[in-house]
């Protein structure tokens, strides 16, 4: 049985339509397999970066564990057992010279993430079976290992750059469940954990390959414990926006990309090769992430005048987030350099500063970011100017 | 009798709609029974879970909006049934209503901006932003 929609009116009755039909039947022509393989190489750059950096760190970690505590199992190597003077970054990616690394005092115990990945094994029940805990070797299950590595990268961004140890700031476990549901086309945050489906294989090929998606989900947890932006209408679009911001920054931080080099895409690689599209969303150019005969065109507005009023999707939270997304990306590009170091910091200050209220809309949020920029960088700073320019470009009054 | 299930939300923000014409089904009585024993009036708003799906289920005169977490028991039976017999339609948000108003709006603004201009300019874009030229 298939749940594939019929393409309404295929613009090109060529190989793509044909390929879709074939893929649906489970018979993929060899030329397409080759294209998919090539595309996978391309799309997996972020996940690969995560894996590479983890590998790079692995020997050091092993040495440390074996050398310091001969009898200590890797998964017992947590904050509490870390030696004084040890450099931070036990279990997650962090190479020498990695950008943005904060300099921790040598006397403080180095924080480390506490990741717990469970497997729903195709059911829709949570949490599923616990399959990989902190410090354990890869399982060989790609979704499990991608989630584990990805969570390490998100943890690194929040801890190293913003000094926030995990979602709650106190090192609580980072929990994720993979293989949720049968061909489940989604990833979500249920209030306690990140949950990832495998995708239907026709439109979506899974969600753990994308570092920005993993960052997006974890950031929902951070928002829930900080600004508590209500998940409806404008405040909901801001909640989504904040998740896109830290999802994109996770990817940029992991890959060492500056604002110019960054793709500003959310969910690059979650679509199959059959879909005409790069990602779920583009922060810099909302409305341009995909244009496909089955999915239609990316509906995100890039300016307040195109704000979408709808009852669906909690009031269009995944649509109207395009407006603040563009403001953020424009400010980052105007400033240049590493976005997590300036605009990201301003947004983090805004999120955690205690001035936002759950029902705040775009205008209040914009004003809060501008205030945060002035607080941190000064009234006449170029950072404050870039933030004001970003909001101005999307039609939102920042003051 | 028509049963419509609209799934919106999700991290991708894509909307799917399944529609079933109950009379066209081989077992219409079972459908009617299923629809009638649904607790239509007992669906308090669920706690919002970021990126999780929202379902709007409609069968005149009934309508209910449920968080995915609430789609259990008979609701789940109905949704599974609908998905089994119907192919989903993918819709842009408000595909029915949005395209038209947008076009009207553009024509309106275009007329405003170009009062008295030649009629072939009528479908001019609403804005001066060159990136947002209308679809050819």
TrEMBL record, chain B:
It comes from the Bacteria. Residues 82-95 have a biased composition (Basic and acidic residues). Residues 82-136 are annotated as: Disordered. InterPro entries: Emfourin (IPR049457). It holds the Pfam family Emfourin. This is Uncharacterized protein. It comes from Agromyces bracchium.
